[in-house]
Amino acid sequence: MSTGFSIFIVSWTFILVGLLSIGGFFMFRKFLKKLPKEDGRSTLDWEEYYVNKTKHMWGVNEKKLLEELISPVPELFRDIARQKIASKIGEIAIQKNRKAISQDILIEGYIIATPKRDHKFLRKKLDEKKIDVTPYLALFNEN
């Protein structure tokens, strides 16, 4: 075998092992989210519960705002992000006994559901929409 072919085989081996590791990591995370907690429901079960329980509470404007806010999320992960964020918004709406999802509840749930590293993108998007972030500063600092 030539040296070039050996390098090619070794390179492909590292690439495949790397790709399989990345895929395995995401599959394992999904598996962990599907495991039941103390209450008998998994994280994914609760997300689905809150989304289904509050489906009727979403107005057209709130749905559009949610879509605009998650637009910076890469297309591949957007459905997962939408489910996670919508479930947190629904959970907050239920806790506060609201009859409809308002812009305030939507933004509060979005801030709580997203990691701190993504808050700068959210603030930028809210500035573009001319939405005042002052009422939510405490939430940005908590997360």
> Residue ranges: pLDDT <50 for 5 or more in a row?
none
Structural class per helix/strand content?
mainly alpha
- For the terminal residues, how far apart are their CA atoms? 56 Å
Which range does the strand content fall in? under 5%
Helix content: over 70%
Estimate nothing, just give the exact number of structural domains.
2
Sheet with the most strands, sense and barrel status: none
Number of beta-strand segments: 0
Mean pLDDT: 87
Give me the strand/helix succession: HHHHHHH
Summed up, the helix count is: 7
Cα-based radius of gyration, to the nearest Å: 20 Å
Shape: elongated
InterPro entries: YneK (IPR020203)
Keywords: Membrane, Transmembrane, Transmembrane helix
Organism: Aquibacillus halophilus
Transmembrane segments: 6-28
